[in-house]
Amino acid sequence: MSVRNSRAAAPLLAAAIAALLLAACQKSPDERHPAAQTDATTAAEPKPAESKPADTPPAATPAPASDTPALRIATIDGKTYDLSEHRGRWVVVNFWATWCAPCIKEMPELSALDTMREHIEVVGLAYEEIEKPDMEVFLKQHPVSYPIAIVDVADPPKAFDTPKGLPMTYLIGPDGKIAEKFLGPVDAKKLEDAIAKAGGPKPGDAKPEPTAPAAKS
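The line above is the sequence of TlpA family protein disulfide reductase; the predicted structure tokens follow.
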């Protein structure tokens, strides 16, 4: 080969070598993006079908207290108190507990109201876990004129709202409907004012004859 040909071939050889070196430095697509291979493999496999969650009914909400609540419950003295049998009078349904200081404080006044007002009756519902003998001992220390019943806290009367605080008191009208609800302590004045507001006799009025005969227990 002549010197002229050698000089002419040199640039071509250098270009070929450079091309080989450049190719050797470049990575394959899989090497440049390792995740690409994984994505490709995953995409090739069918994804499991997404199952739709089963339709679930909305969470149940507690039913509100009935306008005309029913109450039939065994009392401490071995009798049964049935609210429906006391129509014609104003009935004070008092949720309380032996550990509740405001409840104990209002008991004497509720007892006097039950005794002195012919048109008003009271029933006490002990909302607590307590055995009957223990309640009997408590009532000997805190006697009242009205009947007392122990409420099953796991299954309270459904016609009334579950107490969120004690005492909680309902005033039931002669027609059996709820006239007023009190959360917190009550006294004779509050109850008699509520009765007057609902169309009943005002404090000091003559004792009305009940519209339906019902013997006080």
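Note on the example: The chain is about 35% helix and 15% strand. The first strand starts at residue 72 and ends at 74.
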